[in-house]
Amino acid sequence: MTLRIGIDLGGTKLEGIALDGSREVARLRVPTPRDDYDATLDAIVSMTRELEQRAGPPDGQQGTVGVGIPGALSPSTGLVKNANSVWLIGRPLADDLTARLGRDVRIANDANCFAVSEAADGAAASAGVVFGVILGTGTGAGVVVRGEALTGANAIAGEWGHNALPWPDADDEPPPECYCGKRGCIETYLSGPGLSADHGRRTGSRYTVPDLVARAGAGDLDAGQTMDRYFSRAARGLASVINMLDPDVIVVGGGLSNIEALYERVPLLWDRWVFSAGAGERVRTRLVRAAHGDSSGVRGAAWLWPDD
Question: Best exposed site among 23, 47, 123, 192 by fewest CB in 10 Å?
């Protein structure tokens, strides 16, 4: 069985994993060389070789290499675009890594890697269509169809967070400003900072997400109403995904995936906005928490090379 190497290139850390089948055989983590493209290449190459050495691939064969990045490769130019790690933008990352490692390297958006991981051997294992959403500082997402990440003509498949919140009501006004330059994006409501900001606008008090969840659980009326608004918005946002993609499973990762009530409340609410619901028929899409947690991204990078 081929050894798979996965690298997760984050803004602050570079994490690598070696998988023998679905079994982890080696893992490394080092600081990301920020603002230095050549040093980033060197770090990825060094980590790949160290992982192979520790894992000991059979018969001296080289492992496959997949890399998850906080951005995408432009279908037009092959260069990195939309990357939070700005020193990657405009660079031929795939070509440079392929040349240095002497083998093909597959690169994908980190949210796509998350979705691939959970579809391969995680909470959505064996599902045909998977929508993997990361609810954290942002609201990135990826789409996997029959084990393969869907990239799209513009390499932005799954970017649901920069669509407008659907079916807005009075509680959603005024629409918050998003860093992308628009107002009312899903991300401004459903990200961790968005949730905290919503509570602050209503009450004048700012709390972290864990504090808000704890306060709501303890009976705090204001916190409870904030969480009710959050669940309604999540249900509407995900209902629009179901209407368009009709996934078998929606997997949730990121810090807000730890909100236990999310998995009970949201499916109870989204029926009213999903097109096929009603007349005794319930939505069959499952909403589940990621099985691999923070490891999903790096595991998904390794799974960019599925079994032949």
Answer: 23
Query: CA-based Rg of the chain, rounded to a whole angstrom?
Result: 20
- Domain limits for position 50: 3-110+295-302
Q: Which domain CATH number covers 263? A: 3.30.420.40
**Residue 67 class from Cβ within 10 Å (0-12 exposed, 13-18 middle, 19+ buried)?**
buried
H or E element that contains 74: none
State both tokens at 267.
Answer: 């499916």
CA angle centred on 137, ends 82 and 207, rounded to 5°: 155
Task: Mention every residue, 6+ apart, whose C-beta is less than 8 A from residue 260.
Answer: none
Q: For 84-112, what is each residue's pLDDT tens digit?
A: 788 999 999 999 999 999 999 999 998 99
Structure tokens at 176: 């918050």
The 10s digit of each residue's pLDDT in 184-243 is 999 999 999 999 999 999 999 999 999 999 999 999 999 999 999 999 999 999 999 999
Number of domains in the chain: 2
Q: Where would I find the H helices in 132-290?
A: 186-190, 192-203, 209-217, 221-245, 262-270
